[in-house]
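Hi U.,

Before I forget, here's the chain from the pilot set. I'm dumping it here mostly so it's searchable later in email.
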Amino acid sequence: MGLYRAGAALRYFLFSRHSRGHGIHSPFVFRIINNVFRKPIPSSVNEKTGYIRQKMSANKTIIRVRDLGTGSSDRRRKERKISDIYSRSSIVPLYGKVLYNIALMHPGSDMLELGTSVGISTLYLASASPGSRIVSMEGCPVLANIAEKNLSEGTTGNVRLMVGDFDASLAKIDLPGFSPSLVFVDGNHRKDPVLRYFRKIKELILPESVVIFDDINYSKEMQSAWHEIKSDPEVSVSIDIFQMGLVFFRKGMAKQSYCIRY
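Structure:
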């Protein structure tokens, strides 16, 4: 862990609260704590994702990676082992649970993911809501191929992969009436692109939506982006759980911001 992230972790430890919901006066946030952060996910989902995790962890094949963002501390290397990519960029089970349980709250709705990697985070979304149309975007064609194979083993075929630059992909989603109520952003860790994606996402989403940003404490730049996002006047509720930041769009709700121990 770098010096900045170590400091961010200490600040989070000192200032995060309400891990069990005690002292939360918002019924909506209390429900998120109990139905998302504290709720276990089915063992079948753990088994499914665990199988893919084991396969990726054991895969020492070296591939040539096209990295459009700064999602890995190893980003300067063009050739990497699949096992290394998995270990550095894939969501861990603790936060995969967040994606799964959030997706359960939006059954059958459209979902959008920026940053497929090897497809594990996508698998959590698709497993929770097999009736959803899920668009997942990946900048590296080789990784997209790996993700497609992984997803073919674990989903009901409700995921569409788009390969290429996120700005271009966001501009050409051609599914009729595609309006996500859940968006997960985990593919670029620079402030300007993240804020640009956020502006475009706001044009796509439905009311009562949630947008989840990964690695909000990855760097000072990402922390700055997170502060701008949660301060956006259209955001009603923001929740910081260190690795992730969640913003909710809830019309008529007074603006609230939480740092919750997870």
